TrEMBL record, chain B:
This is Formate dehydrogenase-N subunit alpha. Coiled coil: none annotated. Belongs to the prokaryotic molybdopterin-containing oxidoreductase family. Keywords: 4Fe-4S, Iron, Iron-sulfur, Metal-binding, Oxidoreductase, Periplasm. It is an enzyme of class 1 (oxidoreductase). It is found in: Cell envelope. Its EC number is 1.17.5.3. Its main location: other. It comes from Teichococcus vastitatis. Residues 1-381 form the Molybdopterin oxidoreductase domain. Its cofactor is [4Fe-4S] cluster.
């Protein structure tokens, strides 16, 4: 069964559930879209070997779901299989536009996952648009039972001040023998396990230059 | 991984132990299915639970968690006893023939040099006998009684099938079946791959689990070949990258080491890092350490790193302990010796052991900064959630600043997968609200602090003031600029040493890769092993050519793999001493008389003669190590060690508890339970529908697996009067959780050392924020002890008790 036929059979199911798992490998969804373009006539689909019924469905379903979206290559951020994904968004963020994700599926051209995704990757859109996404810097004061919104400037100034204060008070320039050790043990940092290498390098530079030695990442666990 | 996910299709036998790839790495596991369908490969699973991976296996054997070393040494013993050894490979490419010092020995579960007081070994005798030229002595005939092979043979002889059954609880017949199938891969034309994950690493003896399998793979000749290897599946999407880039207390980038107090200056630091070859003519690639180190320091501090100041050596902190790892930091926090903590995309309240101690530690901080795209339990550790987080909010004086970050869909850059592929990706969406990138946030913290130090002065500002920050927009460096910095460039014209008139790399240009780095300050490179990722040819991580000549699974045109775009590590070992592939149908590399050719980038100098230069170029010997010298704190060979909390005693030494050299903090000594009080052996694991504590924020995943449960056998349920689906309480010496009981046939009681052992399985996906029902994680129960070499906390083998219960306060029954 082709993906289009399957969707015709289960039209109410969000295609997220299928991910790319049922993709026709000869003519991938991605290749299909590329080859046909949006709003394609059913006749040219017929010429590509699609039955009339499938073509009719495709002609309706495709443009509705994914026409006029921007395709972006990305990687599933969960496990280290690192499946390739295609994100379909309304708007093109790389052209400076506002963009919103409308669909995420497996990248059929990716050698590892060949378009498939597992139940985690197949539901990635829900991560991007989770109700518990954070949108605003917040601060919880000592003893308080709530977070309060705070501006970025105020948050960052406060952080820099707290850190400098602690570093100046507790930085160990020399040890008992008088040797230079230049370490800061009273503030520590855990680095993320799903950020990019470029983020990691920035984080590394700042943390090590500050002399933070209590510095680890998820690999420790 | 030594190999790639796509290479698994080339194998004949997959052994999954210490992992559950079908469930935790589903799309990678497809390559196992592929090998089974198209090569007729077999799959063996050895696990305490009959996992989803086991359900598609050809053979499953149960094992008590934490006893994998005994099992694997049992297999090695079987192979040696039955002459199932890839002899040519073992003799040529391992240190089997090396002679070991007379002082070295093993008895009563301990190696020579044990000091109970210090919980440490004096490792001086764990080494080769050297000749007058400083080379290791060998006996290629393997007859010398002190050669590694004969010591190994003797060491593993205790691990008979009967002993394996006694320790591991694996019925002898099942063990023998597994050993027999594995031993067939000693044929040069049969290959086995090992797929493992946290089921091996999260033990106080985790590194030795892995070594045991690596040794087995070596004597079977399965390292460096297609369809072979040691394949660490790794957990998170960029855990590999962050480790490669040295975001660890004891590391710098590219596995260079942080200096210690014992190394007061740069030359002293370099002195113990000469890496002179231990056999004539060997590569010992770490001899280039100085080039990588100086180039790294130049990347950090630019012109401020000079020959005179040891390339800014004192800008780096010096360690007084092996590492300020996470366990040490939380121990110090509990003692009031840590004031501030930054959690970037990290949720220690659910990730670190003994949650009670973690929350107590965070409560003692002056400030906690979190950076995440999603809510986390850590950012809200002060918030009372009834039984799920029973804290006294008003008494917690920690100031918490929660920063919203972008997620993958809004970000750009590279991630390194477990096969070491650096894959660039692009942003597709506008971040919600005021969420910002981690790069921007780190830059802002840095720029603000630098400005304060400029204005006000303060403690040793030099490394901060001189930190190289030469970006187009210092407020928000571009990912591509950072990637170029990681690759490295020439700071002056690099000329050909043989012809100084020839400029190899003009000043300011990207180096091709790390082979062009120098130790005189004329090059800079953020992370040498990644060099080649973004050179003058462009962003190689963005490449997306998926052609695969002859379907080897190499995909050399797809993104970039470190090092040097090499896809299979040690690939020179895929060919024999004459450079001919062991298995012509699975050729990877071949010597054509003058150079190495094949499907991969050779893991050796392209013109290194096969008879002369051995494949394991990172080792001073040029060969791999069956005997690891003093490299590991807990022994040059793996030896059976029980978990710290075990239902049975160590049969080799009944007094010995856990790993004899694992670090234990004073305050945790009273926190270990015994089997009288806590009779059941618990373990933690993942489910395919969830990724850690992130996907519980997604409605789809939260509805697929909505609720915390624990898994137990029908036998234990009957014994305890526990009904399927009813509430139970599970508790350890350190904490207590409530869960729904999943009574299953997937777990069966085992018989170990004459005792019935019941296993309880505890998945790790629930907390008190998100879309799923509130629940607990195994870390409420697990002990505060790390792996002896690397301090990875153990989550896979600990003791609990269980009883029928009622719903936790606030939950719907
Ligand atoms: S889709 Fe599944 S298997 Fe693929 S990277 Fe994501 S979590 Fe891993």
């Amino acid at each position: 069964m082709t993906a289009a036929a399957r969707e015709a059979q289960f039209p109410s199911w969000d295609i997220v559930f299928f991910g790319g798992a049922f993709m026709n490998v000869e003519l991938s969804r991605r290749g299909f879209l590329k080859a046909t373009g949006a709003g394609v006539a059913a006749t040219s689909l017929g010429a590509m070997g699609f039955g009339a019924a499938e073509a009719a469905v495709a002609a309706h379903v495709r443009p509705l779901k994914l026409a006029n979206t921007t395709e972006t290559r990305n990687t599933c951020p969960y496990c280290s299989v690192a499946c390739g994904i295609i994100i379909y968004s309304k708007g093109d963020v790389r052209k400076g536009e506002r963009a919103e994700v409308v669909h995420i599926e497996g990248d059929v051209d990716h050698p590892t996952n060949l378009g498939t995704l597992c139940p985690k990757g197949a539901a990635l859109k829900d991560f991007v648009q989770a109700p518990t996404r954070l949108t605003q810097p917040r601060i919880r004061k000592p003893g308080s039972d709530r977070f309060e919104d705070v501006s970025w400037d105020a948050a960052l100034d406060r952080i820099a001040r707290l850190m400098k204060h602690d570093r100046d008070a507790n930085f160990l320039a020399t040890n008992a023998e008088g040797l230079a050790v230049n370490r800061w043990t009273t503030t520590g940092m855990l680095a993320a396990s799903a950020t990019t290498n470029e983020t990691a390098w920035t984080t590394f530079k700042v943390a090590k230059a500050l002399g933070i030695v209590g510095f680890d990442n998820q690999a420790r666990v | 991984m030594t190999n790639a996910w796509t290479d698994i299709k080339n194998t004949d036998l997959v052994v999954v132990m210490g992992g559950n790839a079908a469930e935790a790495h589903p799309c990678g596991f497809k390559w196992v299915t592929e090998a089974k369908a198209h090569r007729g490969a077999k799959l063996i699973v050895v696990d305490p639970r009959y996992t989803r991976t086991a359900s598609v296996s050809d053979f499953y054997a149960p094992i008590r968690q934490g006893t994998d070393i005994a099992f694997l040494l049992g297999v090695i013993n079987y192979c040696i006893q039955n002459n199932k050894v890839q002899w040519d490979y073992t003799k040529a490419f391992t240190n089997a023939s090396y002679i070991i010092q007379d002082g070295f020995g093993y008895s009563d579960g301990l190696f020579t040099g044990y000091d109970e007081e210090k919980r440490d070994y004096d490792r001086s005798s764990w080494d080769y006998v050297m000749d007058e030229d400083g080379f290791a002595r060998t006996d290629p005939t393997l007859t010398h009684p002190r050669c590694v092979w004969n010591l190994l043979k003797d060491h593993v002889s205790a691990y008979t099938p009967e002993m394996v059954e006694r320790i591991c609880g694996t019925p002898k017949a099942k063990f023998l079946k597994v050993a027999e199938v594995i031993s067939e891969c000693s044929s040069p034309t049969k290959t086995m791959t090992s797929m493992y994950a946290l089921g091996w690493t999260q033990h106080s003896h985790g590194a030795q689990n892995i070594r045991a399998m690596a040794m087995l793979q070596l004597i079977l000749g399965n390292i460096g070949v297609r369809g072979g290897g040691m394949n660490a599946l790794r957990g998170h999407s960029n855990i590999q990258g962050l480790t490669d880039l040295g975001l660890m207390s004891h590391l710098l980038t590219g596995y260079l080491n942080m200096p210690t107090e014992k190394e007061p200056d740069f030359e002293t630091y370099m002195k113990s890092r000469q890496f002179r070859p231990l056999r004539p003519g060997q590569t010992s690639y770490w001899q280039n350490y100085r080039k990588f180190m100086v180039s790294f320091q130049k990347a950090m501090w630019g012109d401020a790193a000079t020959a005179e100041n040891g390339w800014g050596y004192h800008y780096l902190p010096k360690l007084d302990v092996p590492a300020y790892d996470v366990l040490r930091m939380f121990e110090l926090m509990n003692h009031g010796r840590v004031n501030g903590y930054i959690c970037q995309g990290f949720n220690p309240v659910l990730a670190f052991p003994n949650r009670g101690k973690v929350v107590a530690g965070l409560s003692k901080l002056k400030f906690l900064i979190t950076m995440d795209p999603l809510e986390t339990e850590t950012a809200r550790f002060w918030e009372n959630h009834g039984e799920f987080n029973d804290v006294d909010t008003a008494s917690i004086q920690t100031e918490v600043i929660q920063l919203p970050t972008r997620c993958f869909a809004e970000d750009e850059g590279s991630l390194t997968n477990s096969g070491r592929w650096l894959q660039w990706f692009w942003p597709a969406a506008t971040p919600p609200g005021e969420a910002r990138s981690d790069i921007w946030i780190m830059s802002q913290i840095f720029l603000r602090m630098r400005e304060m130090y400029r204005r006000e002065g303060g403690a040793f500002p030099d490394p901060l003031l001189n930190l190289s920050w030469d970006y187009h927009d210092p407020n928000d460096p571009e990912p591509e600029e950072l990637a170029k910095e990681i690759n490295g460039r020439a700071l002056r014209d690099l000329t050909d040493p043989n012809d100084p008139s020839r400029v190899l790399v003009p000043a300011g240009k990207q180096v091709l890769n790390f082979t062009q780095l120098r130790d005189d300050g004329s090059t800079m490179c953020g992370c040498w092993i990644y060099s080649g990722n973004f050179n003058e040819a462009g962003n190689n991580m963005a490449r997306r050519d998926n052609h695969d000549p002859d379907n080897t699974g190499a995909y050399l045109g797809w993104t970039f793999a470190w090092p040097l775009n090499r896809r299979t590590l040690y690939n020179r070992a895929s060919a024999d001493l004459n450079g001919k592939p062991w298995d012509p149908s699975r050729k990877l590399m071949e010597w054509d008389g003058t150079k190495w050719t094949g499907y991969d980038v050779p893991d050796i100098a392209p013109n290194a003669k096969p008879q002369d230069v051995m494949p394991f170029i990172m080792n001073q010997e040029g060969v791999s190590r069956l005997f690891s010298r003093g490299m590991m704190r807990d022994g040059p060979f793996p030896a059976h060690m029980e978990p710290f909390e075990s239902p049975v005693q160590n049969v080799f030494n009944r007094k010995m508890r856990g790993n004899p050299v694992a670090r234990i903090f004073e305050s945790d000594v009273s926190q270990f339970g015994t089997s009288d009080e806590f009779p059941y052996a618990a373990t933690s694991y993942r489910l395919t529908e969830h990724f850690h504590y992130w996907t519980k924020h997604n409605r789809v995943n939260a509805s697929l697996q909505p609720e915390f449960f624990v898994e137990l056998s029908e036998e234990l349920a009957a014994e305890k009067g526990i009904q399927p689906g009813s509430w139970v309480r599970v508790w350890s010496k350190r904490g207590s959780v409530k869960a729904k009981a999943m009574v299953t046939k997937r777990i069966r009681p085992m018989m170990c050392d004459g005792k019935t052992v019941h296993v309880i399985g505890i998945p790790l996906h629930w907390g008190f924020v998100g879309a799923a029902k509130k629940g607990f994680g195994p870390n409420s129960l697990t002990p505060f002890v790390g792996e002896a070499n690397i301090e990875t906390p153990g989550y896979k083998a600990f003791l609990v008790n269980i009883e029928p219960s009622t719903a936790p306060g606030g939950a719907v029954a």
